[in-house]
């Protein structure tokens, strides 16, 4: 006779098996050569970090669009409308020579 499986063991297997498969897929792709990305990497010794100095790349309208499309809302405790804050932040950053879109 076969022993009865506990409900916990069945649930654990049902939950862990898909998670294990999802976690394994990237490693299999790397081992199989499916993900390389080396052509997108800078040469060794080259600083590829973004430069925070200079003019902003994004406008206040583009930052507002990002804010809305990422399902963010007006923070309750913020006494200023978020779009006004974007304009002020970019203006102050520009006055200091700093990129306000990433600072």
Furnish the topology, listing elements before pairings.
Layout: H1 7-31, H2 60-69, H3 82-96
Helix pairs in contact: 2-3
Give a verbal description of the structure.
With 103 residues, the protein is an all-alpha fold. 49% of the residues lie in helices and 0% in strands. The chain is built from three helices and no strands. It has helices at 7-31, 60-69, 82-96. The longest helix has 25 residues, at 7-31. Mean pLDDT is 75; it is low at 21-25 and 27-31.
Rg computed from alpha carbons, rounded to a whole number of angstroms: 24 Å
What is the total tally of β strands? 0
Distance between the termini: 67 Å
Strand content: under 5%
Subunit organisation of the chains:
single chain
Poorly predicted regions:
21-25, 27-31
Q: Give the helix proportion (percent range).
A: 40-55%
**Structural class given helices, strands, pairing?**
mainly alpha
Largest sheet: number of strands, sense, barrel closure: none
Write down the overall geometry. Answer: extended
Count of DSSP helices?
A: 3
- Give the mean pLDDT: 75
Would you list the SSEs in sequence order as H and E? HHH
What would you say about this model in short?
With 103 residues, the chain is mainly α. It contains three helices and no strands. Helix 2 packs across helix 3.
Features:
single chain, 103 residues, mainly alpha, 3 helices, 0% strand, extended
């Amino acid at each position: 006779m076969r022993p009865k499986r506990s409900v916990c063991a069945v649930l654990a297997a049902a939950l862990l098996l898909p998670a294990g498969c999802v976690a394994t897929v990237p490693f299999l792709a790397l081992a199989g050569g499916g993900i390389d990305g080396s052509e997108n990497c800078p040469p060794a010794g080259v600083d590829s970090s973004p430069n925070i100095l200079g003019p902003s790349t994004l406008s206040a309208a583009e930052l507002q669009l990002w804010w809305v499309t990422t399902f963010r809302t007006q923070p309750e405790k913020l006494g200023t409308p978020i779009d006004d804050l974007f304009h002020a932040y970019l203006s102050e950053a520009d006055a200091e020579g700093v990129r306000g879109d990433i600072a």
